[in-house]
């Protein structure tokens, strides 16, 4: 089972390079999995892990355009868990959406989802797929209202709250987005990425509002970034946000100096261990830019 | 009490020891394993909510619990007050209830409600799984081994242990160090948890304690309500919990904390 470990490792990163590399190995993994299915007694202990790999593989294949392997993935999952299983129908829907060629096919997917939901109104994966589909059909208002319906019934789903926050944010409704992120944080209070995201939203809200509100919002935003740093001591976005927030206030104090030093260190160490951070290049580049900007303004 | 300072000796066949201690221990371990697999086989997972309203009724309560547990780490004073007022008024008006019309009426008899019936059956199955093997083994031991004194502990004990170690042997003068067969059964019954943990893994069904703990923790399961329980009553008690809460926010002074935390460490 040693060969499995790198696959899982690669699958956990959500970047395109890794996804592509994993997808290239898809036929091999699928064949091995197929053998496992025909001799279920051999690897039965590792079963949940293997199907987790298949699910990740499906995502990677869809991202890299290997639709044939993706179809095989959904078929294997359906063979194990049944066609009517909630998660399998959700993944199947994901595949249909990804391979849809034009808008009318997507509309057909939407009708399909409505049909499934009329049979089982609480099929969560399909409910979520429906929201995502509405969003990709660029009907954000519908997406928001159906997501609100979903959250009314399932108020303890942090993922859904984050998605709603993202939708609101894309529509420029920052205070609603902040509310949603706070709800998500009430469910997972130690998620430093959500803390930092909330900080980012407060920051962008502050930039667009008038001076009186703006100061309060910036202060809240600093609190959020600090909390995310407190929870994760080398979270790049947290430090980046701190530097960004202090920019409009134009007060250079201990905290900014500290954040700058720390960001410098992170950038240096991540540039030297380049291969490990391939997926987060964009963040690293942005951090470098903001640091260069600071250096120039000091001079 | 026997004569002080004199070692009590009982003449007994040493074969008794092997033919009682080992059978009882092995049978107990085997029943534990069997019970584990029988429970796994007969256990049906709790039914997920079938409608949106039902799901809201269940999770609405958990939302209040989440707010109570996590608000200090997340919310500022104003947003906490806002959420608290919203939840309190929603709980009080019964906005989360599956059918608000039934509010205040006595809960439906769980015997007539099919969902409640199923949950009751599940509980009963679990209890039966404990009871039946225990009764059988107890009567088996009583029939075959009752009254045997099987081993002598190598250390002295106080008189209080007599009822624990010598059940089934009604001899007042017997030294406490002697252990009877029935007591050996009881010791096995309560002492084999770690053995089961070793054989079956830590979350096995043979250890009945875990089952009891699980039923006491409401947030762990999908459904926080026991069958026949009135959700409205739980909402009202949650209202009380929320209303007495005192809010503080750990975001206050987080900057100083971060600086102090990292200041001492040069290589972060």
Automatic annotation (TrEMBL), chain A:
TPR repeats mapped onto the chain: 158-191
Keyword Protein biosynthesis: no
Location of the EMC2 TPR-like domain: 105-195
Chief location category: endoplasmic reticulum
Record's subcellular location: Endoplasmic reticulum membrane
Domain of life according to the entry: Eukaryota
InterPro entries per the UniProt record, alphabetical: EMC2-like, TPR-like_helical_dom_sf, TPR_EMC2, TPR_rpt
SUPFAM superfamilies named in the record: TPR-like
PROSITE patterns recorded: TPR (PS50005)
Membrane topology of this protein: Peripheral membrane protein
Keywords: Endoplasmic reticulum, Membrane, Repeat, TPR repeat
GO cellular component: EMC complex
A Pfam family the protein falls into: TPR_EMC2
Record note on quaternary structure: Component of the ER membrane protein complex (EMC).
The protein's role, per its UniProt record: Part of the endoplasmic reticulum membrane protein complex (EMC) that enables the energy-independent insertion into endoplasmic reticulum membranes of newly synthesized membrane proteins.
Family statement drawn from the similarity comment of this UniProt entry: Belongs to the EMC2 family.
Name listed for the protein in its UniProt record: ER membrane protein complex subunit 2
Species, as recorded: Aspergillus sclerotiicarbonarius (strain CBS 121057 / IBT 28362)
Automatic annotation (TrEMBL), chain B:
Transmembrane segments: 16-34, 130-151, 182-201
GO cellular component, as recorded: EMC complex
Coiled-coil ranges per UniProt: none
Location of this chain's protein in the cell: Membrane
Membrane topology: Multi-pass membrane protein
Keyword set, alphabetical order: Membrane, Transmembrane, Transmembrane helix
Pfam families for the chain: EMC3_TMCO1
Main location group: membrane
One BP annotation, GO: protein folding in endoplasmic reticulum
Domain of life assignment: Eukaryota
Function: The EMC seems to be required for efficient folding of proteins in the endoplasmic reticulum (ER).
Family annotation (PANTHER family): ER MEMBRANE PROTEIN COMPLEX SUBUNIT 3
Record-given protein name: ER membrane protein complex subunit 3
Organism: Aspergillus sclerotiicarbonarius (strain CBS 121057 / IBT 28362)
